[in-house]
């Protein structure tokens, strides 16, 4: 980063959403339990599923590996919209009109459900109705945006292609979807968590589920060996951690993106925006303590494929500064989300062999409407009411020939990364390690990851991912070791930050021993 960026940018991730709201705390699980439905994952999907099942009289056990909402939901851009990029022309071309229309209807119903809950319960969560735009920056993108507008017309979507934008940015037109929304997801979900508790549900934090025992009644098994047994089990842990069924590691492609909340000199015109090409850049407004901040997001990449991720924040800063003029950046954060083979989330039965185990994943960075949708759909399936959207979102749906090729490419990529990293000789040296720097080094004749913290202490871990054995790479902005194969992430001292891994990296050294003695 330039000196200008460093002066105005925080040096560590902090989410405005989480900072804006004090959440209740919950105990860790210390003994075996039973419930009607066991849910793993304390983000929007898990909470919405738990909330709706609780309202139907089910006894819920909601288990979170960290703190509630401290995953992707707490680090989102929080656009609540059925406009998931340029999705509808794609669905028309590859899945047909019925699927495209149902996708729009399902997400629109999710947005409306949030509106209804806010009105009925009087939830103050900075909800505002906004038009959502996808804008083109070159002729190739314009052609795609025009086709998306035509798809809107065919599907009866409230929107169209437009030649002008309220936002002063270079463009060649955009497709707008009207009556979409933005909100503060933490403020919205907090009262729902509280209602889950008052209705008899249980919430456990800092409790990592590492295994599932599927039969006869499914049980979630924690790292400490405790079990929570239920009639049904729902995996809402962002990336499914259970590999014995479903093979989600071959069907999901996780990527990481970046956000900054900036105080600007220029006024924000309203609306939500994202460009049609790559690198993706997203804009919306935050209303915080009587003033506005511009929330810019984007510059994503596959996880573990970039070590200098500070550069992504720098590019995001430059883009936002160019459009609005930045005075200060109080917050910055990043998050990740997996995409599916066909761009439609997997919501439904986990596998053909596990009838009472369900999953919700693959939101492709559009998790607010998708998470609400998942809660509604899973509740309908568990309660036996059924849903017209079951087949479209089913994780068991057939894989088309083009998507089968992508599955093969995904598996090949993981194998390629595995082989290349295993063959590469570590080049880093302890003697060259600066304060607040991480590198791959050789330690006791093996590949290791070393980080020197700001107090001078060294933290050395085995870089081999505990999920499937790929080698993790350093992420300098988050100070984590990230796996390029399936997206697991670990803290600099090896603790699991993101799954599918459930076990920490092996610690090789922790302490303030002089660097020279470790060479």
From TrEMBL:
GO terms for cellular component: cytoplasm; membrane. The keyword Iron-sulfur applies. The keyword Disulfide bond applies. GO terms for molecular function: 2 iron, 2 sulfur cluster binding; metal ion binding; monooxygenase activity; oxidoreductase activity, acting on paired donors, with incorporation or reduction of molecular oxygen. InterPro entries: FAD-dep_OxRdtase (IPR006076), FAD/NAD-bd_sf (IPR036188), Rieske_2Fe-2S (IPR017941), Rieske_2Fe-2S_sf (IPR036922), Rieske_Fe-S_prot_C (IPR005805), YhfW_C (IPR038010). Residues 425-508 form the Rieske domain. It holds the Pfam family DAO. Keywords: 2Fe-2S, Disulfide bond, Iron, Iron-sulfur, Metal-binding. It comes from the Bacteria. Signal peptide: none annotated. This is (2Fe-2S)-binding protein. It comes from Planococcus lenghuensis.
